[in-house]
Amino acid sequence: MSVGSAPVASATAITLNLIAMGLGSGLLTMPWGVAGASVLNSVLLLAIVLAMNFWTITILVRACEQWQVFDLGSLLNKLPGRLGTCLQGLVNVTVWGSQLLVLIGYTTVIRDSSYDLMPEQTFLRNKWLLTFLTGVIMIPLSSLDQAYLSFTSTLAILANTYLIMLLVAYIVVPDMQPDTGDEAVLEPRCFFSIGANSWSGIVCMFSLLMYTIIIQMAIPPMYKELAGRSPCKFQRCVLVAFLCLFVIFSTVMVGGYVTWGSKVNSNILNALPTDMWGNAARFGMVLCLVGCYPLNVKPMVAPCAREKHDEHVDFIESNTAPLLQKPGAFARQVSETAPIESKPGAFARQVSVDTTGMGYDTSLPLCLIVATSTFLSVWATNLGSLNAMNGAIQVIGYCGLIPGAAGLYLLGSVTSKEQVALWLLMGFATMISVVGLFATDNNPEGMTTDCVLAMQSM
Predict the structure, then answer these.
(1) Contacting residues for 329 by C-beta, under 8 A, at least 6 apart
(2) 322, 308, 294, 421: which is closest to 88 by C-alpha?
(3) Is 190 helix (H, G, I), strand (E, B) or coil?
(4) Domain count for the chain
(5) What is the tens place of the pLDDT at every residue in 315-350?
(6) Which residue range forms the structural domain that includes residue 425?
(7) Residue 272 lies in a domain
(8) What is the pTM for the complete model shown?
(9) Which CATH number goes with the domain that contains 350?
(10) CB atoms < 10 A from the CB of 226, how many?
(11) Residues 401-438: pLDDT tens digits?
(12) Which residue among 69, 139, 330, 337 sits deepest, i.e. has the most Cβ atoms within 10 Å of its Cβ?
């Protein structure tokens, strides 16, 4: 498929893509975040985060339409002077760090879920060994063409849908409720907390939500593919998608917290019982992440290669754009035989990176990336803290500097009130990003201390 022949997507397909992009590994940490922020605070934070992302996405879409460029790399190049170059370098470094944390998180989930799936007496029930095996398997898988990985979008939808239904069933079907222990059963659930002791848990929850919801890096190419595109039409798609995500996230995070209480695991899969229902959720998520892992390695490898004059290699407008994609997003392979409408559950459009057509062999950087993430994941035991750190890293770029600069310099005439709002956005994003790097623990004890309104336990 040539660069200029972008597929056309209906508004329904784009809306479903936007919903699907929120169903990643970040969803697994939502109940853990609520355990440190309380139910009401978490729901309010969810609304605030969705509103912030809606606003910043609107800015980017308007800028893309005005300049007729449809990837973040090209959009940043339109900024005046050296601002675009400097901002692009900063964002690329941010994305590299964020992407590495995504791979560590994927490895951690695959390892822990595989451990629970293994029989008690097998030699494979060893987390060090499972971590090593995960890395060994990911090296050849990450070398595959993305056409062989296109199944991940549908699998991601199915795995996350099943997990959501299971958490709801634990609440509404008494016979299915897992054994959470006497302490968790008797513990009241905090509906609302306020005070100095709970601030770190609230900031942590904000970062977790940002990690899960930020999709700005995938927005320009998605907007390009919208049939009859206009900023207003795309805004309606985002609004509907975010309303659906509000319902989905509220159900998962409140359902998980109500079921397990303040001691809920930072990876909800680890809290599930090892019965048929719980193991089915683990198995589905393992398959999903095994397929999605390579899709998140490719954007990191792409800048290490140079394009040859090969008709089988397609790059979108900016040479840096392969890196400027959504960290952790489950992505869709676009092909001439599979238009976007045929895969409504797909995620973001991926750049086709054929390593056989590159000027340099990407095997070495690929192996180094996988080996580094595998090595670091040996010590990664808390998926919640990992995702919170990742969310804090992403906020400054994707919810602050990029949309702020685009709004100030790429939208033409901007009122003084809008200028103030954009500067406040960049300042808030920078502040919350810095604070978020230090508040990566949910601190349920602080929330319990500051709880002013409790609910009855299950």
Answers:
(1) 21, 24, 215, 217, 218, 296, 347, 348
(2) 322
(3) strand
(4) 1
(5) 333 433 444 444 444 444 333 333 333 333 333 333
(6) 11-455
(7) yes
(8) 0.82
(9) 1.20.1740.10
(10) 20
(11) 999 999 999 998 889 999 999 999 999 999 999 999 99
(12) 330
